[in-house]
Amino acid sequence: MDKFLKYPNEQIDDLLCDGLKIIQKQDSYKFAIDSVLLANFIKADKNDRVIDIGTGSGVIALLLSAKTDAKEIVGIEIVGEAFDRAVRNVKMNRLEERVKIVHGDLKEAVKIFGRESFSVVVTNPPYMMINEGKISPNPSIAVARHEVAATLEDVAKVSWQLLSFGGCFYMVYRTVRLVDVIYKMRSLGLEPKILRFIHPKAQAGPNLFLMMAKKGASGGIKILPPLVVYNSDGSYTDEIKQIYFGKRPEV
Q1: What span, in angstroms and rounded, lies between the C-alpha atoms of 127 and 143?
Q2: Which end of the chain has the smaller Cβ count within 10 Å, N or C?
Q3: What mean pLDDT, rounded, does the chain reach?
Q4: Which of 51, 7, 30, 14 shows the shortest CA–CA distance to 144?
Q5: Could you give the dihedral angle defined by the CA atoms of residues 112, 114, 115 and 117, in that order, rounded to the nearest 10 degrees?
Q6: What was the pLDDT predicted at 54?
């Protein structure tokens, strides 16, 4: 597998799911648990065409190939080096027939793919606005963490345009912007239908949430039981262990 390594400081990590591997770079953005939790939250069947907007190195697209029966999974990424890694990750895992990676700006996705061309849109967008914290000089890290290349509004608008009527939008985001997300989703016709809060520990408040919204749906939202990441001793909870080993809990 070393033949797929291209740049200095790259390494191959185990995704602990159906034998999947991923190339990551030490001094670049590396995926975190939020991407894994999002991939496990998504439902897609053999009739679904899925797009991951802002796919980075393609971790969510790779996991969805194992966790769903989606007939096609597409990832779009603006940062050239991250796009290149995503392409190599697809090849390394021999998923070329099912997973496609496109180099482009997510704001141009409708021009690239066409309106209403997907039944499922997935995203783990940057959590921080431009005026929050220090922006990394590394383009991969900057785009992943801050709204440098796309804002929350851009993500919502493009997702609505890409989705077919009745299609589902899935995201993971930080709780401090929950109101912003619900407002923007509903104002565009993406009705929030499922919400699950992620707690670092049982005794701590949530810092992230998973949401599914549906295009053109009526009102009414289902709140799932909280997802707790760590036990009091710092070890992963049983549910997180199941998720990491590729077993999706029924909800």
Answers
A1: 10
A2: N
A3: 90
A4: 30
A5: -110
A6: 93
Among residues of the chain, what percentage have pLDDT more than 70? 88
Contacts of residue 250, Cβ cutoff 8 Å, sequence gap at least 6? none
Quote the pLDDT of residue 3.
84
Token pair 């053999």: residue: 46
Q: How far apart are CA 227 and CA 53, in angstroms?
A: 24
* The model's pTM: 0.92
| Pick from 196, 4, 168, 173: nearest CA to 92 | 4
Domains of the chain by start residue, with CATH: 7-244 (3.40.50.150)
Distance of CA 186 to the CA centre of its chain: 20
Q: Which residues contact 32 (CB under 8 A, 6 or more apart)?
A: none
Residue 143 has pLDDT above 80, yes or no: no
Q: Which residues, including other chains, have CB under 8 Å from residue 49's CB and lie 6 or more apart?
A: 70, 71, 72, 74, 117, 118, 119, 120
How far apart are alpha carbons 114 and 134 in whole angstroms?
36
When pLDDT is averaged across residues 238-246 and rounded to a whole number, the result is: 85
For residue 131, the model assigns a pLDDT of 57
Exposure of 247 in the CB half-sphere (CA atoms within 13 A): 7
Alpha helices (H) in 80-201, listed in sequence order: 80-92, 109-113, 139-145, 152-162, 178-187
pLDDT of residue 39: 96
Q: Which two tokens stand for residue 196?
A: 């699950």
Tell me how crowded residue 32 is: count the other CB atoms within 10 A of its CB: 12
Task: Report the pLDDT averaged over residues 76-97.
Answer: 95
What is the average per-residue pLDDT within 37-45? 96
